[in-house]
Design goal:
Number of helices: 14
CATH superfamily of the largest domain: Hypothetical protein, domain 2
Bound molecules: iron/sulfur cluster
Structural class: alpha+beta
Radius of gyration: 26 Å
Oligomer: single chain
Length: 372
């Protein structure tokens, strides 16, 4: 981390010259505090003014004092962009208008409504958190960060966002967007994932918070990171913090935040059986853990290293049993990039003779599903 004798909050442009630093040493403690106070004050007022003018009209902001709406939005926004979340949020809030509705719902229905949003563990955690809030907090989303982080799927940053936005608690947020803004603002030239740097970023995010409007301030930081201080080509010319930004004054905006080299993307081929029986298709439920945990999907088998598609298809056909006949060659190949995996589904159509009574297949629950 870029250190300065005047403390972590003074970006390079604002830092005094060596001579000024020598002069200041005699009264350094007092000066440092004054500089930092002035720096924080200007960041707060510029950022809040910018937010008042530029904030996006997002559906959960219409219910910003509603803990349930914020909880729902924050779960969905973990690892996912706002533009993708909006439709899902609106469908969820329509189907489950209160936390009691969500807690009373079947997990399968929650997972089905979540389908396509990815990171399905979030849906399970959301459902479990709703049930805990109903049973242990009388259906009221807890106000304090210490309570919120005991709920499944809620870390310190999500807890800070819910507590500050819904309840005005003075709690910091340090999601990916905020971390990027703060590391650039302070010209932090170290990876933000190490424990030492993380803890300094948390301290910075906390001390930047104003006395009032903490929820707006956190949202402003997140919004700035999402739309202006983007990972590549940040829009510094449009940024309200530009004249106080350490990365700009040191010409480091493209080098900060410092990231680890990208993990190698592994390929993951699967053979998939689309077995029809009349107007229904056979689905199996995934195991409790792992990728797609608990989700209903077409039966599949991974293709082993150096294994041919035909051999993997034969293995799948054996497991499906004699009542299901699969085509000999794939009918489609669909590829999707997950975080570190390029998954390719090689789909083999098939037919079932009669309608086999199956409740378990490949060691997991299965069912025939038709159009609704
Ligand atoms: S000036 Fe540029 S790098 Fe600095 S916070 Fe703003 S957008 Fe990010």
């Amino acid at each position: 981390m870029q250190r300065s004798e005047t403390g972590p909050f003074i970006p390079a442009r604002e830092r005094p010259s060596p001579r000024a630093r020598r002069v200041a040493r005699s009264t350094s403690g007092q000066h440092r505090r004054e500089d930092e106070v002035a720096f924080r004050r200007v960041i707060r007022s510029r950022l809040l003014r910018w937010y008042d003018t530029h904030r996006r009209d997002l559906p959960w902001r219409h219910r910003h004092t509603d803990g349930y709406a914020q909880l729902l939005a924050e779960f969905m926004l973990q690892q996912t962009q706002v533009i993708t979340v909006i439709g899902y949020y609106e469908r969820f809030i329509q189907r489950f208008p209160t936390i009691d509705d969500l807690a009373a719902a079947d997990l399968d229905e929650v997972l089905a409504l979540w389908a396509g949003l990815g990171y399905y563990r979030r849906a399970r955690n959301l459902h479990a958190a709703a049930r805990t809030i109903v049973s242990e907090y009388g259906s009221r989303v807890p106000v304090r960060v210490e309570q919120l982080i005991t709920l499944p799927g809620i870390g310190r940053s999500t807890a800070g966002a819910i507590a500050s936005v819904a309840f005005g608690v003075r709690a910091p947020v340090l999601d990916g967007n905020v971390a990027r803004v703060v590391t650039r603002l302070l010209a932090v030239e170290e990876r933000a994932t190490t424990a030492v740097v993380r803890s300094r970023l948390w301290a910075a995010a906390e001390s930047l918070l104003p006395e009032n409007r903490c929820g707006d301030f956190n949202q402003a930081l997140m919004e700035l990171g999402a739309v202006v201080c983007t990972p590549r080509n940040p829009g510094c010319a449009l940024c309200p913090l530009c004249s106080h930004c350490g990365a700009v004054s040191e010409g480091l905006t493209e080098r900060i935040p410092v990231t680890r080299r990208r993990a190698v993307v592994r390929t993951m081929p699967l053979v998939v059986a689309a077995v029809a029986c009349g107007s229904t298709v056979l689905l199996v439920q995934g195991p409790d853990a792992g990728l797609w945990a608990g989700l209903w999907a077409l039966p599949s088998e991974p293709v082993a290293d150096r294994e041919s598609l035909g051999a993997a298809r034969d293995r799948l056909a054996v497991r499906l049993g004699a009542c299901c006949q699969l085509n000999g060659t794939p009918d489609a190949a669909i590829s999707r990039l997950l975080t570190h995996r390029q998954v390719t589904f090689h789909v083999f159509r098939g037919q079932a003779s009669g309608k086999p009574r199956m409740t378990e297949l490949l060691g997991v629950p299965c069912r025939w599903v038709g159009p609704r």
